[in-house]
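It is time I had a proper look at our fold encoding. Can you supply me with one protein entry, sequence and fold together? It will help me judge whether the discrete encoding reads sensibly. Leave the record below and I will have a look:
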Amino acid sequence: MMVTDKADSAATRAAREAEVQAGLESYRASKRAPSAEEMAEMRAAFGKGATVVDILTGENIRL
């Protein structure tokens, strides 16, 4: 018998979901406005006037 034979897939999914949710909440709580350097990098990459979306928070950043 292997250790994985005793794994509870429902418990594993629930633990993964809780961990992802905690990580996203932590990310959102520590979110700050982009620095001048980050804005310059985004303008260089996407072009002035573009809108960049943070897919984790849904925030729209107009360049």
